[in-house]
Amino acid sequence: xxxxxxxxxxFALFLIEGTLFQxxxxxxxxxxxxxxxxxTLIAIVMISIFRGAGLxxxxxxxxxxxxxxxxxxxIGVYMFSLGFVAxxxxxxxxxxxxxYWWQFLITLGALFVLEWMxxxxxxxxxxxxxxxxxxxxxxxxxxxxxxxxVALLLLYPFQQFFHxxxxxxxxxxx
Length: 174
Description:
Elements: H1 5-18, H2 20-24, H3 39-51, H4 53-71, H5 77-88, H6 94-98, H7 100-125, H8 132-173
Helix pairs in contact: 1-3, 3-4, 3-5, 3-7, 3-8, 4-5, 5-7, 7-8
């Protein structure tokens, strides 16, 4: 039963991003900023840190494919970007696995890389005509700050979840 916990958690975060967040912080034409929640990215980074690059990339590609189907008309941008971000954030050093602040810095870097990569790919393909300065000030920086705050709140529960998962797996192997 425990093996379904992680996929269900990631799927629940994906649903929360698209539903509950939109209720509490609805998009507005009066604001110049766009807030984009990335709860699943935080989970994928933690999976990459605690479970390795392979599983992190698998979750990144699958969730990216969900993003592409649900939110965009172009298949592959989020699939590639989330898989790549999962790979580059898979630090398996003991210091990273035990340090809350290292995990927070890696998550902030992953958020920045994901936003920058998806914008760059859409800009190169021609799906957007927004200049980078406008994108940075209206979407990237506000979303980065929002997700950084959410990461501060979610990293400790994720850390505890993965430690508990490791303990349960060790018990099953005995």
